[in-house]
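Progress report, Aim 2. The chain analyzed during this reporting quarter is listed below.
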Amino acid sequence: MPNINYTFTLKINKAQSKVWLSGCHNEFPSYTVIVNGKTVYDRNQTGTAVLGLLGACDILLNVDAAQI
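Predicted structure tokens for the chain:
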């Protein structure tokens, strides 16, 4: 059965105004991570509601020291 799989780890260093984001998610749905009003990760869905949910956490993400 298709299902939504995702894992996000968000680390914020307020003193340096930086953020680190890692994890994974399916092709569907779209994902956006916003910190202090700034988009640090944005990905539009690429699969359909059924096919994009097959598999387990197939899109890897790694945002390294984004300025916030």
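The radius of gyration is 13 Å. Residues 6-67 form one domain. These observations will guide the mutagenesis work planned for the next reporting period.
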